[in-house]
């Protein structure tokens, strides 16, 4: 059977997941494309898949074929994919349930989906054990974020937590809290091995940086030395450089 009607109740329910409100209520989300679906399949997150009619499909997952018109409506890309999956969110709600994690990244009100996706990819690449999204950070399950991660969100614990509460937890557990600010900062290349063993690195908002009340909780500021002509780096690029240096 091929679903061809946009008025189909199943299609209407899937369409709701394009909005954060319904993703939060249902604890499900959408991903598009074979690669992202493969990555989500590896962690048993895929609930069902909607395929463009006549698209080959080899996964042992409940699936339904739809017309091009329906797929175009379901897709949030300019050129619709041939497959879209409904997935269940991973439950990361309590830091105490996690095993020993020494390298933590906390993102303070990051707003751009592309930046968040890039940062998550870099976190996996450079050995970060956990990513924490503060309040008012862009939704992890925003379709643009998920595409930008290239599926790497499936390979790292990602929490959405109050920043101050998370920092308090890490301070009590003897993590060094690193901020990112050139004022009173240390060249990240000068850190010793012991200073890189157990830390929480905080990256701030694209326009405003780390909030002042969060900056005050940092033990040490870090900076990346660069030419004076360059005022600042994109937060995704800056974060990637810092994570690389902290992983050396």
Structural write-up:
The protein has 248 residues and is of the alpha/beta class. It folds into 2 domains: 87 residues, Ribosomal protein L30/S12 (60s Ribosomal Protein L30, Chain: A); 152 residues, 3-Layer(aba) Sandwich (Alpha/beta knot). The chain is 31% helix and 21% strand. It has 9 helices and 12 strands. α5 packs parallel to α6 and α5 runs parallel beside α9. The radius of gyration is 20 Å and the shape is elongated. The model has no long low-confidence stretch (mean pLDDT 93).
Q: pLDDT average, as an integer?
A: 93
Structural class: alpha/beta
Note the gap between the termini. Answer: 54 Å
Strand content bin: 15-25%
What order do the strands of the largest sheet run in, or round the barrel if closed?
8-7-6-11-9-12-10
CATH superfamily of the largest domain: SPOUT methyltransferase, trefoil knot domain
Q: What percentage of residues falls in helices of 4 or more residues? A: 25-40%
CATH class membership of the largest domain: Alpha Beta
CATH topology of the largest domain, by name, is Alpha/beta knot
Poorly predicted spans:
none
How are helices and strands ordered from N to C?
A: EHHEHEEHEEHEHEHEEEHEH
Largest sheet: 7 strands, parallel
Count of DSSP helices?
A: 9
Instruction: Tell me the domain tally.
Output: 2
- CATH architecture descriptor of the largest domain: 3-Layer(aba) Sandwich
